[in-house]
Amino acid sequence: MIGISAFQIIVAIIPGEPFEIAAGYAFGWFWGAVLCLIGTLLGQIVVFLFAKKFGMDFVEIFVSTEKIKEMNFLKDNKKLYITTFFIFLIPGTPKDVISYVAGITPIKLVPFLLVSGVARIPSVVSSTIGGCCLGLKNYTMAAAVFIVTLIVSGILFFVYKRYEKKISK
């Protein structure tokens, strides 16, 4: 599971949530989350360091120039960490792409891993809890977990969009 999670980050076009659900199903919510988070951090280290070393030319292999330009919020050094935290906190946002782009910003590896790692925990845990519930054939609880996650994601996305609009002025 660690290798799959790392690979999923490196490839950047594969969403992580199905793997997190599978990890919860196979290993239980706690160990599934631990394995996914370790793999995710390893994948982020690889992506981040390659982006730092090889720069924009490397990043553009995985992320279009247009997409990079849309991420102008990462150019504000004062708000770089809080913006990164919000993006990684919201389930369903393109976190893997952000890992590439973060490598070409002034952000340092360890703070990036701390901010993104902590922010990922709620999303990964909710996915692995849902997967664990599916494994236990507790479909009602699994549905409830996924619905609550969807609602919370929507609220966080709305809050983030308001924040993004505010900082872009």
Automatic annotation (TrEMBL):
GO cellular component: plasma membrane
InterPro entries associated with the record: TMEM64 (IPR015414), VTT_dom (IPR032816)
Superkingdom as given in the UniProt entry: Bacteria
Keyword line: Cell membrane, Membrane, Transmembrane, Transmembrane helix
Annotated localization: Cell membrane
Domain annotation VTT: ranges: 14-125
Residues spanning the membrane: 28-51, 139-160
Similarity comment: Belongs to the TVP38/TMEM64 family.
Protein name: TVP38/TMEM64 family membrane protein
